[in-house]
Design a protein that fits this description.
The protein has 249 residues and is an alpha/beta fold. It has a single domain, classed as 4-Layer Sandwich (Metallo-beta-lactamase, Chain A). Strands 8-5-4-3-2-1-16 form a 7-stranded mixed sheet. A 7-stranded mixed sheet has the order 9-10-11-12-13-14-15, with helices on one face. A two-stranded antiparallel ribbon has the order 6-7. Helix 5 crosses helix 6. The longest helix has 14 residues.
């Protein structure tokens, strides 16, 4: 049986007992179908490349990059990633991503822009590999993409922030792939009051019957704890930098 490996490269928390750094933003690395796909690059280029080094991931080993949406927390490390590449790479993103500014200038420096092969995403589903797909924008205001990994037990949704509302994303995935197996990534919940979090949890667990839930990134520890209150302590799991998920596809 074939397997897909998903490695968390960046999160606000890092795996205990490692030199990995926790920092704002998120990043996942997919090894699937003999391809390596990077989903976002965190906020800090220095921290992102530090973690890549500790995890022994060379920038040139990445076959394609997907940027979830135009936010510094998800594209801030991209220029440093490109600085460490020697060959061009396909980058899937909505056009607005290229207007995002880093702390010290434009998203991509003049030295690196030539290595970016821009691939516009967001208008329709894009199949990256046999089992990995980029969603279209599910809410025009969000400008946010999700990734979907098709496993032998159903699709797993990977989300950066779910600005469109997680219900919209899950509805689009279920319509395309059927009942959803898992949800991984960030949902903006840290400043959301418990009754509203309860409603989000109800949609995920009861409306869409999602049983495997790993939250990180912009969910924050506070939001994760609220989700545990809304569901059960064992249903909601953390996913720190350095943690891996393995799926049969």
């Amino acid at each position: 049986m074939a397997h897909a490996r998903v490695l968390c490269v960046m999160d606000e928390g890092a795996k205990v007992g490692t030199p990995l750094i926790g920092s704002k933003g998120a990043s996942f690395l997919f090894d699937v179908d003999d391809k390596r796909i990077l989903f976002d690059a965190g906020r800090s280029g220095r921290y992102f490349m530090h973690n890549m080094g500790i995890l022994k991931v060379k920038a040139d080993s990445v076959d394609a990059v997907v940027i979830s949406h135009p936010s510094i927390d998800h594209v801030g490390g991209f220029n440093s990633f490109m600085t460490n590449r020697t060959v061009p790479v396909d980058v899937y993103a909505v056009p607005e991503v290229w207007d995002t500014k880093r702390t010290f200038g434009p998203l991509i420096s003049a030295d690196n822009i030539g290595g970016v092969k821009k691939q516009e995403a967001g208008k329709e589903w894009i199949q990256l590999t046999e089992h990995l797909f980029i969603s279209p924008i599910v809410n025009d205001e969000s400008k946010e993409l999700a990734l979907v990994l098709r496993t032998n037990q159903g699709p797993v949704v990977f989300t950066a922030c779910a600005h469109a509302g997680i219900a919209h994303t899950l509805a689009a995935v279920k319509q395309r792939f059927g009942p959803i197996r898992g949800l991984v990534g960030g949902i903006h919940l840290s400043k959301v009051k418990q009754p509203a979090v309860n409603a989000v949890a109800d949609v995920i667990v009861n409306t869409y019957s999602v049983n495997e839930i790993h939250l990180n990134g912009c969910t924050t520890g506070e939001g994760i704890q609220k989700m545990r209150v809304a569901t059960s302590k064992d249903k909601i799991r953390d996913l720190f930098a350095g943690d891996e998920l393995d799926y049969t596809v």
